[in-house]
Amino acid sequence: MTGARGVLDGYRVIDCSIAMAGPFAAQRLGDLGADVIKVEPTTGEWQRHAAAGGAAGNEINVSFLSLNRNKRSVSLDLKSDGGKAALHELIAGADVFLQNYRPGVAARLGVDYASLREINPSVVYVSISGYGEDGPYRDRPGQDLLLQAMSGAMYSAGRDGDEPSPAGQYLADAITASTAFEGVLAALLHRERTGEGQLVTVNMLDALTTLQMQELSVFTVGRKAQQRSAEPHAHVYIRAPYGVFETSDGYVALAFADLHELGRLIDEPAFEGWSSEVEGWTRRDEIHARTAAKLREATAAHWIATLGAAGMWIGPVNDYAKLVEDPQIVHNGTFIEYEHPTEGAVKTPGFPYRFSATPPQLYRGAPRVGEHTREVLAEAGFDADAIEALLVSGAARATDAAAAVAGVG
To answer: Where does the secretion signal sit in this chain (predicted)?
Structure first.
């Protein structure tokens, strides 16, 4: 391959992320020509050793292969002084730094934004988290299934009366990757204009919630409940137990539980001696059925507390009503509210990313047809007569300008 690789040719990205969301975002930057340097531990990134669907590959498993093209790998031990110093040298010449460490890890490694800004003031620093940089859910595991369950999305498909159904894709990870990708591009544009780097934060909960812009607005503005029909409207690549389970008073999402520990905690002796990486694949139906039967014996809160305390990945399954009032959603300010000139009070998902220097803002609500025709054409150089001729001929349409969104200039 010769010549420029893409629109981002000349930009350098330091990718210290793991699993899916961060690597996927960095891969997209690489696909557009950025020089993506993947900094891995000396043992390799975690995803190299966790083959989705059991597709281990020859040397590189499919999970890692699918998320890390267009990158060069540098293997460093960031817990050592030498490894950390080497990374700092890379940062000095980089345009973007991306990480999705657990909260607090970046600071312990000396690669938090405040530290790296001292080395490279113009760096665009992207931090991806499960639920936000702070707030009541800060330390919860940001796992795809749990985020899907919390987001309300599972109640928008399937048959009335059936268990809530997760998507057949790693939806939360993929959407978060796209959101982080957008954030990088916007921050780089800001830097081109001003020379200023900044911190960009993205979290999976907000990314997945704001993805449901239309559906949640139907609920919050149109006041239409999620009512599933009698017949379904509609992962085969994950070991058991992995899914939504009914409890005595609702549902929980449970992912990747160790079979020995799970069997002990739910009093299921059949799991004794079973391997999560063997029977977890070969006896998925039986594991699901036995787990489901046991979890029906107690409340959702009981299982979340009991299994969660043992380090298992378990969480609630929200509908939209619970999502909107969720304390982390409220803390994050995920939803925005404003007065629309024609629609009245509007509450809708806001912005999936945070920018420290150029935060997203609400300037106007959804426009009416042609509301800004005259304004925009005039800015483009059309005089009043030319605009009027377009309108009279039907080549253009204008609607009288409405008042600005309440509280917004």
So the answer is: none
Radius of gyration of the chain (CA): 24
Whole-angstrom Cα distance, residue 25 to residue 142? 16
What distance in Å separates the CA atoms of residue 145 and residue 70, rounded to the nearest whole number? 28
Tokens standing for residue 223: 């006041």
Q: Which domains does the chain have, with CATH numbers?
A: 12-211 (3.40.50.10540), 235-318 (3.30.1540.10), 368-409 (no CATH)
Check if the beta carbon of residue 216 is closer than 8 Å to that of residue 348: yes
Phi, psi of 203 (to 5 degrees): -130, 150
Tokens of 77: 């031990």
Q: Which of 295, 288, 208 is nearest to 251 (CA)?
A: 295
Which among 254, 284, 277 has a CA at the least distance from the CA of 266? 254
CB contact at 8 A, 33 and 4? yes
406: left (phi over 0), alpha (psi -120 to 50) or beta: beta
> What is the CB neighbour count within 10 angstroms for residue 106?
22
pTM for the full predicted model: 0.81
Cα within 13 Å of Cα(78), Cβ side: 21
Q: Return per-residue pLDDT of the chain as tens, 409 residues.
A: 345 678 899 999 999 999 999 999 998 999 889 999 999 988 888 888 876 777 776 777 888 888 888 988 999 999 999 899 999 999 999 999 999 999 999 999 999 999 999 999 999 999 999 999 999 999 999 999 999 999 999 998 777 888 898 988 899 999 999 999 999 999 999 999 999 999 999 999 999 999 999 899 989 999 888 888 666 554 676 888 988 999 999 999 999 899 999 999 999 999 999 999 899 888 888 999 999 999 999 999 999 999 999 999 999 999 999 999 999 999 999 999 988 888 888 898 998 888 888 888 887 887 776 888 888 788 888 899 999 998 999 888 888 765 445 444 3
